Amino acid sequence: xxxxxxxxxxxxxxxxxxxxxxxxxxxxxxxxxxxxxxxxxxxxxxxxxxxxxxxxxxxxxxxxxxxxxxxxxxxxxx
Length: 78
What we know:
The chain is an alpha+beta fold.
């Protein structure tokens, strides 16, 4: 399931600062953080910040698959 699908099904609206774990292009579990919500009534689109440099080239973080755990050492130490 993608991050966008999880947000669309969420029972509560995510807030700025909330985070989720996604599988990055390198196959590791990375943390992403909600940084902006233009319209408080909608769950998507939200803007996300990839904490790890491995996600910098990823255009749409909400299209990444959700991961059960962080497996990236850089994200674990953040």
